[in-house]
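Troubleshooting: if your tokenizer reports a length mismatch, compare your output against this known-good record of 198 residues.
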Amino acid sequence: MRELPVTQTNFTNEQLAASLVRSWCKLFNDYPSRESIAIILAQKCLECGTKNCFGYNIGNIKAPATGDDTICYSMYHNVFEFIHGKKVIYQPPSPYTWFRAFESLDEGTLFYIQFLQKHYHSAFDAIKVGQVANFVHLLKVNKYFTADEQTYLATVSSYYKSFTKDSFTYADNSPIIIIENNDIDFTLEMPIGATSDD
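Known-good structure output:
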């Protein structure tokens, strides 16, 4: 594993939405629904805040202890988990403080979508059909987060509603997502029939 310094990475929700769409298209050769992107944006806001994150890690994904030199990580201070209802705080070099780190937003969003699909498949299925409550419930059941489920759901739902109102819309049922005040090209850059394994 390769340690990177803890770096706050700034981007707008519009830039994040565009990156998520690019990564989704790269993986599935299809455009996601507005609701699918809104769920991921909403969860990112809960996990990382509304304006930025660290190391382009939009899901606050922990880094596994491995000898794989291709995996980058950073060690955060004051990391907390709720264990048996009690808040426990960890400091480096505890493995509980190791979080994945990426060198670009697109790298982070691509990893995050693949991570959910691989490790939280049923929750990812809920993203695909726009089911916020089911997504949160399945994350909780599969131990993605340790917080209270209803509190987590209330926050994600609130952000989700704001992203489905005005942040971005479909134009004339086309697969191109229009993001306000931003020119973004969503042209697929992979040949039809390509897969994420290519």
